[in-house]
Amino acid sequence: MTANGTSTAEGATNTKYVVEEQNTALVGAIGRPRRVLDVGCGVGLNGEAAKRRGAHVTGIEIVPASIDRAKERLDEVLAIDVTSDEAVTKGLAGRSFDLLLFADMLEHVADPIAVIQRLLPYLEDGGHVIVSLPNVAAWTVRLGLLAGKFEYTQSGILDDSHLRFFTRETGRQMLERAGLEVLRLGQNPMLVRAAKDVVLSAQRAVAPGGTPDPESLRKSLPYKLYQGLVRPVEDVVAARAPELLSFQNVYVARKPPKARKLSLTVGMLTMNEEDSIEAMMGEIRRVAPDAKILCVDSSTDRTPEIAARLGARVLRQLPPRGHGPAMELLMYSAAAESDLLIYLDCDFTYPADYIPVLRRIVEEEGVDVVNCARTRTRPAAMPLPNYLANRSFAALAHVMHGIPTCDVHSGMRAYRSSMMRAFDFDGEGDALPIDTLLFPAKCGYRVVEMPIDYQERVGQSKLRKIAGTVWTMIRLVNALPVGQRGSSRYELR
């Protein structure tokens, strides 16, 4: 939220020094949405980040100077009073979104729950809400209270335009009372930021006329060095005691998905599957006649021609870039057109008969990921070294992340599309299935792991064992800061 033209206690008009910067934790949680509503968008810095990831971004703002700047960054900006039912109904009629952003906006309204509920009808089923709220329990405020002070300021946690104040827990409670399911929490640290008054005073002192550009701090070299070198360390420290060390608490929540029929894409990564593609597609059509079939293909034989002739959508990836980039393309392409992706290999190692089972679990039980585990016991079709390697990787995932999986590399899974769009999965390299299992499991989504029959392969294996092992270790380590260790919503069946 931007603000200016406020009045001092003496009644004189004083123009605030408005500071516009990107909300780092909020932007990091955006994922890859399709349609975003940025409520209280300011000059559009947060919404611009979503637009760079391919989203259509609509901003809501009421400050004229901010609207003009935001229009240069976002697809559209609407002047809507979000405290008015009539204004919201008129301004958003016929629109729907899969992500709502509230970046330091709800503390400026008298009834934040009513504002959220007023906008929820425009959020699709399972759609996400990301909220940033100043943390009134930060150490700086606590020290002030110990000294007998609770003084309003022109910006920050005790901004004199704030009508509501939140701790980490009361912010969560507010979102839950609004009807949202809170999935995970993040924070922007209150360490270096504690010196903001000194920094802003220096900015005003050197600015022409004493009124700096609201974006001048963000564009400065010291700020960029801080973000690159100091901020990562602050994040680690603040995560140890977020109630005390957070400047802002950032909440990722969603509109709880309802039990309903979901549009389905069945996806496969294909590379020289000429011997199996026609029969595999026939099996998919038999068990899921309404499903779209999507192939990301890197073949040099007739596989893509056969698949296209049989009605599949084929995305060519030539020259081949490996499993990770192909899987990334498959997931986000499917998430753009269907509610559910069921992925399986094209070599008959995973029976297509499981597709209706996975679909039912997601549609009827509200599950976000179904992981089909091959290795509860050793399957006859899997060589012993492969079995031991898979169980070892799963054991590492359990020890490092607290997720009780027995198969982190399964080639058959179901993914709810709204969950996929909530993350920005990076497919570079191999072993992407580790991220697409651990990230949702550690971030509050409901994951079910069920045993599955593993059959003899048709055709040749394309597995890159050495590269896969290296990337498995890299991804297991890189996933450590994501979400929270363990998951009470990971169910073994």
Shape: elongated
**Structural class label:** alpha/beta
Low-confidence stretches: 1-14
Share of helix, binned: 25-40%
Strand content: 15-25%
Sheet with the most strands: spatial strand order: 12-11-10-13-15-14-16-17
**Contiguous helical run count:** 19
Number of strands: 17
State the separation between the terminal residues, measured CA to CA.
47 Å
Oligomeric state of shown chains:
single chain
Radius of gyration: 25 Å
Q: Give the biggest sheet.
A: 8 strands, mixed
Mean pLDDT: 91
GO molecular function: methyltransferase activity
Protein name: Methyltransferase domain-containing protein
Organism: Polyangium sorediatum
GO biological process, one term: methylation
Give descriptors for this structure.
37% helix; Nucleotide-diphossugar_trans; 19 helices; 19% strand; 493 residues; disordered N terminus; Glyco_trans_2-like; alpha/beta
